[in-house]
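User: I'm preparing a small set of examples for a lab meeting where we compare how different chains pack in three dimensions. I only have the primary sequence for this one, and I'd like the structure in token form so I can line it up with the others. Please keep the answer compact; I'll paste it straight into my notes.
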Amino acid sequence: MHDNQPRTSTPDTLPEVITRYLTAHRAHDTATAITAFTREATVIDDGNTYEGTEAIREWLDRSATEFTYTIHLTGAQQTDATRYIATHHLEGNFPGGTIDLRYQFTLRDGLIERLVIEP
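Assistant: Understood. Below is the structure token output for the 119-residue chain.
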């Protein structure tokens, strides 16, 4: 396998920092979730960009209370040495009621430097 080809991963082979973030996010544990990010991290979600841990903390707090939903990890992939994609299926009281989202992580120094969430 060439180093630049995506590799399918199982959820239990995702890096600890991604698993920590995903577990904390599902539990609405903002204090733990924020520890997974670098201080200069960027999150892009629903067309909005959040830069730095304070903006990300506010986004996490808001997303935890805005809608009620269930989230299930349905797949994982490592695309290169620092990039991973975790695919999730969400069901809840948000517009549309169901959606599959790709959480695209970029890591730096063992933490999340960038997270892009999109269909």
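A couple of notes for your slides: Residues 39 and 71 are 26 Å apart (CA to CA). The two ends are 28 Å apart (CA to CA).

User: Perfect, thanks.
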